[in-house]
TrEMBL record:
It comes from Nicrophorus vespilloides (Boreal carrion beetle). NCBIfam families: polynuc_phos, PRK11824.1. It comes from the Eukaryota. Belongs to the polyribonucleotide nucleotidyltransferase family. Residues 251-281 form a coiled coil. Keywords: Coiled coil, Nucleotidyltransferase, RNA-binding, Transferase. Its EC number is 2.7.7.8. This is polyribonucleotide nucleotidyltransferase. Residues 673-744 form the S1 motif domain. It holds the Pfam family RNase_PH_C.
């Protein structure tokens, strides 16, 4: 079933070696020496191809994943000497190359510049899929680079990048407990679609990426849904996890065929038993007392733990001067984490005194400041977000570049977008304030996916929602969903139903990295910041009372059984309903009575021949209108215009001005075939502009209709501005609506 093909080239002689347990491949490829390729069969017949050995042979590992005509190459390189950091220094770079799609970048320099938002979000997908399977003591700088070789208009490259990265690490000599496999899932007509095309995704109510490892253990989940029912989502996750096993088995075949022997890691330094015992004696009970003091808040608990750290490190340094201080600090952190986790199992109470299913205290308020179109403050424990909604014309929609359309969902422009800000004062810190970083982009994109399904289609305004985190102690992205939903209703946006979000955590016990057979676990509803740091999972789920709109699972252990995934989604659904009830007490439904400062828009139907009165020469009338009233007029088609005003009074003023333009001096009835006196108002290369009556928009009398002789320029006839002449009127052009005038026909009549 899983064919492994190694092809060697010697002149024109091709030799193909097949695995005896697989069907013989019918196609023969001319490939470079030592290239090995496997094919991953999916249930729907859309097979994925993985290969290694052709490109980037100096890298520790390289693999290419192809689906349809989309191909992604991923390389993995790791240093041979450990870094001084006490965490995994893994960097994932994902680059969208315009050349891969046969395009040229549209920026001034016509080359790829800094990473775009989509590139950063795709890199985060790959990072979160790989990181949990590295060993705890792996502190070697590692870089995974994802390059698009070719992109078609049907298959997205992000899932291919995850699978190619898994294969690159598997065939490399980098120690890694993979492989993992990833699939994208859609849901159309109650049927789960594996690796749907871009066109199918537009019809699907689900866009979910599932990454899993062996034994059906889930490593990462990320997706959005259009109010999808819980049971349908669970069905999709189960099918997706099963399909990933085909990818994993194929990567194992590829690794056996051409993989390198894994390098030996340097043994990490360990504390002596005497120092470990001293740490337990000096810190164990003190840390336990801090975590059992349920009156502590975020800051007081952190201060108390820092005091213990400082005191213990000073005593250890005094009593054991030859011991590495950094190693002691790491050992103390491990002890604090162990005490925290053990207390969860022993006391069945969390560090803030809550039960496992209990929510923090929630309060919310809307309509904060008069100038804002919509605003809300959502507070959950010590997490606080301030959300604002701004409505603008459709011309303010976010235009997507061609590469974003090809590699995303095909949307050309977005009339709803959410911007998430996390300033350093939210955690009582100092630091950089500037453009959004990788974390802020990821959290903002998740919150946007959680709210997008509840917005109305064909809404006449562009909606910008900002969420600024003022305090943070966990789940700020899900608080943004709650606060954003309240702000949208405060602005009068007709959302289908309010949405809320909650984060679910996990504390588990297992041995020898065997997460399939867990000894014990506790699922935590409404995650605290310290529970996220000390725990094993951060599972964020957003949705309405009816269904789910977005989810994102960050799993820190080497895979999660499906049973725990299902339980977590159930816990989130129950918590989400409680949060929505609290939000309902603040504001029940979208505001019906519009605020005075809300923008308004209306359509203006105009006859074709009156467009010039509205626009003026070179559009000067519309420019004047905008400067005087702030009102924008945008043309939709030949006869329809959209008027956007910042408020109702500005719209009323603009309507008065427009009506004056359209109704100034009643247009006289012109008779077809009638002869009129025309006044020249402008000389052009192609003719003269004339008026037949005062206030008339100038009409063109073309060179071909000026004289019986051929005229190259009106000046040869001695014509000048202000001169009058007789012309004949032949009605209006049925297509353009322009006047048809002629002076030539009158001359021919005189000659006769």
């Amino acid at each position: 079933m899983y064919g492994v093909r190694r092809v060697s080239v010697a002149g024109k002689h091709l030799v193909q070696l097949e695995n005896k347990n697989v069907r013989r491949c019918k196609r023969y490829y001319s490939a470079p020496l030592d290239q090995t390729e496997v094919e991953v069969p999916f249930s729907n017949g859309r097979n994925l191809r993985l290969s290694s050995g052709r490109y980037a042979k100096l890298a520790d590992g390289c693999a290419v994943a192809s689906l349809g005509d989309t191909a992604v190459m991923v390389t993995a390189v790791s240093k041979t000497k450990p870094s001084t950091s006490n965490f995994l220094p893994l960097v994932v770079d994902y680059r969208q190359k315009s050349a891969a799609a046969g395009r040229i970048p549209t920026n001034f320099l016509r080359r790829e510049l800094g990473a775009s938002e989509r590139e950063i979000l795709s890199a985060r997908l790959v990072d979160r899929s790989l990181r949990p399977l590295f060993a705890k003591n792996f502190f070697y700088e590692t870089q995974v680079v994802c390059n698009m070789l070719a992109v078609d208009s049907a298959n997205s490259p992000d899932v291919l990048a995850i699978n190619a990265a898994s294969a690159a690490l598997a065939v490399s000599d980098i120690p890694w407990n993979g492989p993992v496999g990833a699939v994208r899932l859609g849901f159309i007509d109650n049927e789960v679609i594996v690796n749907p095309t871009r066109r199918e995704l537009q019809e699907s109510i689900l866009n979910l990426i599932v990454t899993a490892t062996k034994q059906n253990l889930v490593v990462m989940l990320e997706g959005s849904a259009k109010n999808m029912l819980q049971q349908d989502l669970l069905k999709a996750i189960k099918i997706g996890t099963k399909e990933t096993q085909h990818v994993i088995q194929s990567i194992d075949k590829l690794s056996k065929a051409c993989g390198k022997k894994k390098r030996e890691l340097e043994m990490a330094k360990e504390l002596s038993g005497e120092v470990e015992e001293a740490l337990r004696t000096l810190a164990g009970m003190r840390v336990r007392e801090i975590f059992m003091n349920y009156t502590h808040d975020k800051l007081s608990r952190d201060y108390a733990l820092n005091d213990v750290r400082t005191d213990v490190l000073e005593k250890i340094r005094a009593n054991y001067p030859d011991t590495d201080v950094a190693l002691v600090a790491e050992g103390l952190n491990d002890l604090i984490k162990k005490v925290f986790r053990d207390l969860v199992f022993e006391e069945n109470v969390r560090c803030d005194g809550r039960t496992f299913d209990e929510l923090r205290n929630i309060s919310c308020q809307v309509n904060m400041y008069k100038p804002l179109h919509g605003s809300a403050v959502f507070q959950r424990g010590q997490t606080q977000v301030f959300c604002t909604v701004t409505l603008d014309s459709q011309q303010s929609a976010l235009k997507m570049d061609s590469m974003a359309m090809l590699t995303g969902d095909g949307v050309k422009e977005k009339n709803f977008f959410l911007h998430y800000e996390f300033p350093p004062f939210a955690t009582k810190e100092t630091g950089r304030i500037g453009p959004a970083g990788r974390r802020e982009l990821g959290h903002g994109a998740l919150a946007e996916r959680g709210l997008n399904p509840i917005l109305p289609e064909n809404y006449p305004f562009t909606v910008r929602l900002t969420s600024e985190v003022l305090e943070s102690n966990g789940s700020s992205s899900m608080a943004s969903v709650c606060g954003g939903s309240l702000a949208l209703m405060d602005a009068g946006v007709p959302v289908s139903s309010p949405a809320a979000g909650v984060a679910i955590g996990l504390i588990s016990r297992f041995s020898e990295n065997d997460t399939k057979h867990m000894e014990d676990y506790r699922i935590l509803t409404d995650l605290l910041g310290i529970e996220d740091y000390m725990g094993d999972m951060d599972f964020k789920i957003a949705g309405t009372k009816k269904g789910i709109t977005a989810l994102q699972a960050d799993i820190k252990i080497p895979g999660l059984p499906l049973k725990i995934v299902m339980e977590s989604i159930q816990k989130a659904t129950e918590a989400k309903a409680k949060i929505l009830d609290i939000m309902h007490d603040c504001i029940e439904k979208p505001r019906v009575e519009k605020k005075e400062n809300l923008p308004v828009s209306q359509k203006l139907e105009l006859e074709v021949h009156k467009r010039s009165k509205l626009l003026g020469v070179g559009g000067i009338n519309l420019k004047k209108l905008f400067l005087q009233t702030g009102v924008q007029v945008n043309q939709i088609d030949d006869t329809t215009f959209e008027i956007f005003a910042p408020n109702q009074s500005a719209l009323d003023e603009a309507n008065e001005i427009i009506q004056k333009w359209l109704n100034t001096e009643r247009t006289p009835e012109l008779e077809f075939g009638g002869i009129y006196s025309a006044t020249i108002v402008e000389i052009r290369d192609i003719g003269v502009m004339v008026t037949l009556y005062p206030g008339m928009p100038p009409a063109l009398l073309h060179n071909s209709q000026l004289d019986q002789r051929k005229v190259g320029h009106p000046s040869v006839l001695g014509l000048a501005v202000g001169q009058e002449m007789q012309v004949k009127y032949f009605g209006r052009d049925p297509v353009s609506g322009l006047m048809r005038l002629s002076r030539k026909v009158l001359q021919s009549a005189a000659l006769r």
